[in-house]
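[step 3/7] fold_predict: job queued, chain A
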Amino acid sequence: MQEKNLTEVNKFFISFFQGSQNLRVFMLFLLLVVYSITICGNLLIITLVSTSKNLHTPMYFFISQLSISDILLPTDIVPNMLLMLLNNGATITYIGCMAQLYFFCTTESCECLLLTVMSYDRYVAICKPLHYVSIMTGTLCMKLIVTFWLLSFIVSIIYIKIVLGLKFCGPNIIDHFFCDLVPLQDIACSDTFPIKLQIYLLSIPFVGVPNLIIIISYVNIVRAILQIPSNISRQKAFSTCSSHLTVVSVFYMSLSSVYILPKSGQTSDVNKILSLLYTVFTPVINPIIYSFRNKDIKKAVQEKIQKYL
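[step 4/7] structure written:
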């Protein structure tokens, strides 16, 4: 009878943001605008990379894959957020909650791997320019992408299987804007320590190792750039990886602030804002960074405009 009570909860109420109607309407409009820009911006990059010959390089191929991830992530979360703002909260089934968490985990895992291989791509381009073409071949890039997506789908299944170990017996109110691990742990009535331990162990190959590779790559990149005698050449070399470094910094800083840093003194509202950074605002920032700070993307846009005018 006790076990039955522990698994009785089959629906969750996601509260997200409790406030006045005018404030909720403003947030609804803001999120709708941001989501629309995210979809349009990332679709533009995918279209340009697939149709412009001068963008058929490993770096832009990986950027287009990052854009796919940046479309899938907010699509998994934002529509339900808009519904919550309209109705001052929303109900989600247990299965729907796990499905949302699964796709969230898949896209975030793949983005970690993509940012890692992009840092390696910049390392090879700057530190081993003569061997770049022979190392970063089209076949290797395609194999890496297929492997990354398959690994992300598989590890997400393992992740959800671990989360299914949590038992819920009430309350069923999630004080967040989507089904994430932290708010689910907060309302679980079973011991969460084994779950946390398994999640941390699982995050090592998808967060710890990628972080290490990124750090090593950029240490070598900076070392190689500093050895270039010409200031103009140094600036040109750094500009080829500055956009990626900006994206990596924003992504990992917001991600770490939610899942790694201590939660003492951190309110649920602060946690929501930090979560909004990497789930909603980072996907819209990425295409802006790669568009405004990239001459090849600008050139491709101008060519398309001239072609259809």
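[step 5/7] annotate
The longest helix spans residues 94-127.
The CA atoms of residues 39 and 301 lie 17 Å apart.
exit 0
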